[in-house]
Amino acid sequence: MSKNLVIVESPAKAKTIEGFLGKDYIVKSSFGHVRDLSKNQLSVDIENGFEPQYEITADKKKLVAELKKLAKDAEMVWLASDEDREGEAISWHLFTALGLKEDKTKRIVFHEITKSAITSAIENPRKIDINLVSAQQARRVLDRLVGYELSPLLWRKVKPSLSAGRVQSVTVRLVVEREEEIKEFEVTSAYRVTAIFSVNGKSGPGLKAELSERFPKEEEALAFLKSCINADFTVSAVEKKPTKKTPAAPFTTSTLQQEASRKLGFSVGNTMRVAQHLYESGKITYMRTDSVNLSGLALKLAKDEITSSYGSKYVKTRNYTTKSKGAQEAHEAIRPTEMSVSSITGTSEEKRLYDLIWKRTLASQMADAELEKTTITIDISKSEYKFVASGEVIVFDGFLKVYLEGNDDDTSEENADLLPPVKNGQQLNPVEIVAQQRFTRGPARYTEASLVKKLEELGIGRPSTYAPTISTILKREYVVKEDRPGQTRSFRVYNLVDDKITDKTETETYGYEKSKLFPTDIGILVNKFLFQYFESIIDYNFTANVEKEFDEIAEGRQQWNTMIREFYGPFHKKIEDTNENSAKFSGEKLLGIDPVSGKNLFVKVGRFGPMVQLGDTDSEEKPKFAGLNKTQTMETLTLADALELFSFPRSLGLFEEKEMTVAIGRFGPYVKHDAKFYSLAKTDDPATVDAERAIEVIITKREKEQQGTIVEFQQEPELKVLNGRYGPYIKFKKDNFKIPKGTDPAKLTFEDCQRIIGNPENAPKKAFKGKRK
DNA sequence: CAGTGAGCGAGCTTCCGCTTGACTT
């Protein structure tokens, strides 16, 4: 039996530490929090000082029982959760849930997973910091009160099953407001003038320069080009300036998500999933962190690696400090555990993410890159304007040898690497001067990763919640992640060659979007509701302000429930007031009048989402309703679109003596025939689809089903053995059943199947909690 | 998985932050 029980948060950490501590210690993991407020009720006693009612989380019951037993048998229990607000609370919950005794419990913390760090932690134990625990409790209770009082209000006023919260609602607001900025942005154009000069005869490399001025008007650009005819072009200045570039700091969760998005095209969820694998196999340090700090050991390993691979002049040891708001720094930056391992075995995604982390970490400990920036100014004899050419030459590559951080916007003008040598006073001959109409670009839509970056800047959310927050607002359909095709537009180009000006009109595509976040009608409406009634909750500074109060609680300068009381009073009053005194918030808009019936036609959000309504709600005759298409939005819907929606279901005539109809359901347009549904393709327009196409769709689906069917039974047409995405399975009505290992699915008899279905062990599991439709 | 939207009334939905697997049709 072990004398000592050590409890950490993560099982991977537990395994490593156990190796350091020897046989007198058993090291276990709590897998994060073990207790929480009950999911099914508020679980905060408003009447009694906001006392939280905790329970052991369902999936932790077994674990807590096991830990309790181990703790009972141990002489000393060491609570070693992370040294931050949540970590302190985890220790306190463990203390309470395991029924630990104060004289048999010690709280320890360490920042590095090394033998010396652990040993030193064991030698310097402390008590649980109850003030820090109170700060966490305030955070937890505040989030619960906000989430569980605002959400039900949304169910009543907007639409069932919606949600609101301190983090998600601000995240949605960011996306909604960015879309508004894009809509309000006024595109203007101006003429950008560039020239290519020959330097040493026409064969040599040209010198590319840009005019220091842009002309908003076509006439101005043309007038300038005219002034260049027969003009002299003289170099009036050649300026060389040394500059340097410094490497980016090592990865935090947020910067890893951004770079993996920019360079590898990963979603934030995918980045975290791959990083988790790398962490569990011991290849990288912990991946949920807001710290850019590297341990002393890591600094030494990096230095050794750089010295041996590139030489000592590439080494520059740097200590980074975190500047982001609300950082708690319980961990190191994300780095390889062994800097000497430059590549790993694993999936392609794991290899690529590891490579990124390895390079970023190494570069952060390398010398600055030294560059020489050259700027050449060219005077024009017949004009006041000047051409400017600039170029950059790398004198010493430094960290650029391994890594350069990516950029979110691709607007940066390209710099020529190397400029041909010219002297002050030298005459240049223009090969070509081009004035091209260029358009301004509005703000960029968010990607998942750039949204995370914004959240981090605002101090909203934590490394462990960035990816889940994005998932939540996508799941609630407040926001969609989509590609949008670009549009084309024409622009004017004037060309001056051999003293002659020619002009032409060319076209370009713009506004093409890939995997960008767009607000939906629901997202826009919920945001509007919250903005109208609860602006303080979705204020960008709300989190920052409450964080200040949590800090005061952590320092023992304020009682946690005093803070909550001060918040809850006015908040709850506003909830009740809005509940009683506001009407349904449906975003109803009158589109026009139906020319056939003369009735009003509205667009609004109903119980099942955006819809059109023909006739007034309070009229004697019940209004007609129809849901919007997935591709339609309330804002852009026209009267004609709305009228078309009422033309469904539309009959397409008979096929095999049964009627075919086309309609639009929750999952898009479909054809219904003989009580079966057949989805139409994205390219089909339900308004014009004909019988011929419908029959084609029906037959294709039948063929596909036939291919997937292994066995059918005459006794029971609803029982089948099918071949699905995960291999063969048995389908009976709406339930699916696994086939026992070692059974040939093609040889299953009707009796076999009945036995499998009848076995209670194979009974279909209740749907996952997250699988709500 | 698909057709809904009145009104009645039952019962359900929901937060943020810590951690991993089990499981999918």
Descriptive report:
- This protein has 773 residues and is an alpha+beta fold.
- Helices cover 34% and strands 25% of the residues.
- The chain is built from 19 helices and 30 strands.
- The strands form 8 sheets. It has a 6-stranded antiparallel beta barrel with strand order 9-10-13-12-11-14. Strands 2-1-7-8 form a 4-stranded parallel β-sheet, sandwiched between helices.
- α5 (130-157) runs parallel beside α16 and α6 (168-184) packs across α13.
- The longest helix is centred in the N-terminal third of the chain and has 28 residues, at 130-157.
- It is globular and about 90 Å long.
Which stretches of 5+ consecutive residues score pLDDT under 50?
765-773
**Order of strands in the sheet with most strands:** 9-10-13-12-11-14
| Fraction in helix | 25-40%
| Portion in strands | 25-35%
Number of strands: 30
What is the straight-line distance between the termini?
49 Å
Q: How would you characterize the largest beta sheet?
A: 6 strands, antiparallel, barrel
> What is the CA-based Rg, rounded?
33 Å
Please tally the helical runs, counting DSSP H or I stretches of 4 or more residues. Answer: 19
Overall pLDDT level: 91
- Rough outline: globular
Structural class: alpha+beta
